[in-house]
Amino acid sequence: MTMAARGVFITFEGGDGSGKSTQILAVRDWFASRGREVVVTREPGGTELGAEIRRLVQNGPEDVDARTEALLYAADRAYHVTTVVAPALERGAVVLGDRYIDSSLAYQGAARSLGVDEISSLSAWATRGLYPSLTFLLDLPPEVGARRRTDAPDRMERESMDFHERVRHEYLRLADAEPDRIVVIDAVGTVEEVFSEIRGVLVERFEGGSVTINEADDAVPAPAEETPASSSEVPEAADKPREQSADKGSARKPATMVGALGESQGALWDE
What we know:
Helices cover 42% and strands 12% of the residues. By secondary structure, it is of the alpha/beta class.
């Protein structure tokens, strides 16, 4: 049994302190142990240009307004997709992204009150319609995430608790609107408990529900504070009820395997 050479785009979303970076490393190892090339990247910061944008947005002037912030993220995303994500998918890699379009919808569209539909249109234009086929939403109350913080907060992390509640609310609304793409994971548990949930989804989606490698061998790496910039090397849910989306008509169609590249995704294994 061999893996088909198909690109797979998986993103990880969630509030600050939800453990995305640690879980991305565990998922990277899961795919790598099955013989796949894995590219781990992040937004912003997955390119040299993105790293500079990240610095400007997170630690730059406090007077950066919401529209400027949204446009900077869109510029980073356009360049990131063109230079990192799309080429990796074309050659059949698994791309694991720490944040993507859903972050802009939650933070700028909802929490910054710029409008989810407006940010969705901007993001679709910037990425030429490339969406992930699977998104893990690591959900936890903002106050729990704040307690997990070990370093000085950046500009976004210094926002009010109400701001972060709006972010979480929008994430959960998006998950209600796109349940096939966005899988909500309770991130309050231990690293091992969270990865156990994620691994179950990976087995179901990419191995047809049958485990071909002993799950006991799927080790969870030590917690990581931050996802490194893009790399093809081996390095690199909760007490608030979800509300049903009032506008499911605006939900985006989840991308199949290479999204705008046009190939449908099936199981990763060929007999």
